[in-house]
Every structure is written in structure tokens, then in C-alpha cells.
Amino acid sequence: MIARITGILVSKDAARAVIDVGGVGYSVHIPLTTFYELPGEGETVVLYTHTHVRQDDMALFGFLREKDRDLFRVVISVSGFGPRLALGVLSGISSENLCLAIRDGDVKKLLNVPGVGRKMAERLIFEMKEKIGKISFGDGADGLRREEETGERIRREALSALVNLGYRAAVAEKAIDRACEDSDSASSLDLLLKKTLRILAG
Q1: Rounded to whole angstroms, how far apart are CA atoms 116 and 102?
Q2: Eight-state DSSP code of residue 45
Q3: Farthest-apart Cα atoms in the chain, separation
Q4: CA-CA distance, 73 to 3, in Å (whole number)?
Q5: What three-state secondary structure class fits 3?
Q6: How high is the pLDDT of residue 137?
Q7: Which residues make beta-bridge pairs with 19?
Q8: 115: helix, coil or strand?
Q9: Residue 57: predicted pLDDT
């Protein structure tokens, strides 16, 4: 089993990276979260890999952090989740946010991941909840939780302000959801209100 690759990044795209190791080019499947953090082509890169072997194929899946690779292995242990589907999950949500969603039983957050339906989200939570306790992301998860709590407070204040302006709560909440698709909009109450009001104005 190939557990780690260190070599020169020959090429990269959103789905894979080619790493030259001593003149041999390894094609490694990667999630978008890894693609965004890869160095430039021609530079040295280290990828923690999972080797998936079938009767007619062998594929490598790579990650910049060992903990991301470990989480990938937990996802593929869930019934119905093969490597490709697991890679899609980790492309749609950061490892830290995925762990938080699993620990909190947050089905709604998982439904925001492309390709994940309600039954799949519930299965992930049910089968992963105990397993992810062995994976530690240090202060990162706590920091993300604090950011989420701040974001929720800003959303509540924005909703309250819009209701006071005469908008129906359900309409205002949908507009806030649309505004929050741009993560910068949820960073302050002023920005969120401005964008939400523009959406409500059509």
C-alpha cells in the first residue's frame, strides 16, 4: 500500500494531480479542497495517499493533510460510500466542517454538499459519529464553531431587523439564505443587511 508520495508536481486539475517520483509519474485523485492548496507545477509536494485496489484497477487518492486522508477512510467505511463518492463529499465541504456537522447531527449542513441527499446525510451521521472522535483537528474545529456561532447571531439580528421593517419572516429568511451564499456577506450585520435588502428589492 502506498501511504505517502513526495515528488515534483507535474500537473494538476480539479480532479487529479500527477506527481513525479524518481522519474515515475503517479496519477493521484484529489478533492477540490486539496487542489486549491497545491503548490505550483514544478514544485515539491507531499501527499498522504489511500490506495484503493479492485480486481481490475488500482487507484490512488491523495490529500495534503494526513488527517484529511484519515477522514476519507472513515467516509468510505460508511455503507454505500465508495472512494469516488467520498472524494465528492470532501470536495464539497472542509474536513473540519464535515466533522462538526457529524458531531452536531447537522443534516442541513450536509445537504449543502453537492450529491448528498437526506438519506445519505443521515447515514453519514449515524455511521461516522463514533469513528470521527479518533480524528483531532486541534483548535481548527473550535475556531470554526466560534465563527459559526457568530454567523448565526448575525443572521438572527438581520432577520429581526427585516421583520421590524415590515418583511414577513419566511420571505426575509429566504433572502438571507441567498445573501449568505456569498460568505463575505455574513461577516458583518451591515453587509448582510445591505445584500439582503438588494435581493428583496429584486
Answers
A1: 14
A2: E
A3: 67
A4: 12
A5: coil
A6: 56
A7: 9, 26
A8: coil
A9: 79
Q: What pLDDT does residue 156 have?
A: 77
At 46, which amino acid appears? V
State the pairing for strand pair 24-29/57-63.
parallel
Neighbour tally for 181: CB within 10 Å: 10
CB atoms within 10 A of CB 169: 11
Q: Which domains does the chain have, with CATH numbers?
A: 4-63 (2.40.50.140), 66-134 (1.10.150.20), 139-200 (no CATH)
What is the SS3 assignment for 117?
coil
Q: How many Cβ atoms from other residues are within 10 Å of residue 83's Cβ? A: 18
Angle at 33 between CA 30 and CA 34, to 5 degrees: 50
Q: What is the β-pairing status of strands 24-29 and 4-12?
A: unpaired
CA distances from 82 to 111, 143, 195 (A): 18, 30, 40
User: Which residue, chain included where needed, has cell 441567498?
Assistant: 178
64-123 confidence digits (pLDDT tens): 999 899 999 999 999 989 999 999 999 888 888 898 889 889 999 899 888 889 999 999
Do residues 17 and 62 make contact, with C-beta atoms less than 8 angstroms apart? yes
Lookup result for grid cell 470554526: 144
